[in-house]
Design a protein that fits this description.
about 500 residues, mainly alpha, 5-stranded antiparallel sheet, ATM_plant, protein serine/threonine kinase activity
Amino acid sequence: MFAYLYYIRQDSSSAKEIRVFLESEECKKAVSDEIPNPTTLSHLRDFSVLDHKGFATPAELEALPINRLILHTQYLLQLHNCDDAYQGLLQAAIFELSRRFIQLKAFAPCLSLLEKSFGSEVIIEKCKVLIAKGDESTAEHLLRSLLQTTVTVEPEIEIEARCLLAELFAGPRNLLDQAVAFLQEALDRFDKSIIKSESRLRYFSLIHRLTARQLYNIEEHLESRAFRMREDAIREWSKQQEQASQRPPSMAARRIECELRCEKEAVETVKKKLLSTAVATVSAGLEALKLLSEPYKKQPLQPKHINDAVLRHIFPLIDVIFRFDDNVDVVRELKMYVGSGMVPAVWVQVIITKLIMAYPYHVLHSVLLYKFDENRAPVVQSMLEEAERRIANEKDRARLHEIIEDMTAAHVAYLQFVALKMNDTRFFEKRGNSALYYMLGNVSIMSRIEILKRVPLPVVEQKLGFPRDYSGDELVKWEVIERECMQADGLSAPKITRIYIVVHTHDFL
């Protein structure tokens, strides 16, 4: 085989004779063997990779074992063909092999392999290798040079370069705001009609993920002590301003007015950023959802990996829309999406209702957060009732009702436990001089432990199974809870205890 590859490089006519001889020898072995010899079959599959056209689809390249992919790539490299079609085939093989080498952390041969090709796409692949290797500074330099010096760079190349740079900013350097701004600054320049769907999906999905992280950070800041101190300061300055207004003008009154204005502007800036980030998150998320939904227009039944991609995307997106459903701009984005007729063109309540029907264990913990809000309780209740009503099978309908009841009871138990005070002797008993407390039997999570064992833990990422699988067999659930607990420091003063859980029928701590 190596002799064959060597003679191809030398452009020798002997290459064809060697290949025919080797194949004939392997065929003779295959015929003479009473039982198929795995080695012979393996050699014949090697020869099937070495066809003179060198043609292999991306799916075929992905399916090749790495040894045959190396063989196929080496074969193409030996041909020295300048044809554009051949160069495309060679580049596809090199990129697939490069991806495999990255997975194996074989960075040196990966970079050497990429030196055998050229073009903007090769620079992108080199940067991926450098980022995986940990050489972010060199990757950033190459990406910036690609964006700045190449005037006629293809839109797909620019999108990928921007995405890689944004991931560098948001990842190792934690410059999330800069990453989002860098992506959004080119948003209006891209012509959707000439950009491939895969590139647009990559672009909008990344914007959605990063803005969602931004949103989480802002919401976390709103709950922080620093932000609450600003609000307290505004209330205090407002009182002092009211008192000062009843006296003659003075320097102290002007100082109070200036301090109050500064604090109000700071708080208003954060709240405006919260709303604008929510709109950006929903807008990018819905654009990505349109692209994820495109295959369903041609064929409603899609493979599981496509369904899973849609579900992984839609869960957090719906959560953001539901939290900001009173914002005019968020509602406008959703109306535009629904009005566009894209699949699935449904309103938020319908989406959530269907998700409750399909994945109650995964969705209900988020939905029930709003059940005890008097303004949203009727909406949540109507969705729960609609989800049950739409289940045609009586047995499944009864099972879904049981799941909703158990999840609701568990949610109430969590709320009650959080609301309890550790110094309340009706529920806790202090043990000595330590910080440990002993939970009595009337504590909600103790008295309802049998219900908690039937529902998944809300703080653990649960495995996504098949729709309407109400068995809950693959979920991470409660098993045993220790009665000893303690209260940690911090603004929220969380209670800490030890819980034993069940993961796929195996016990873990």
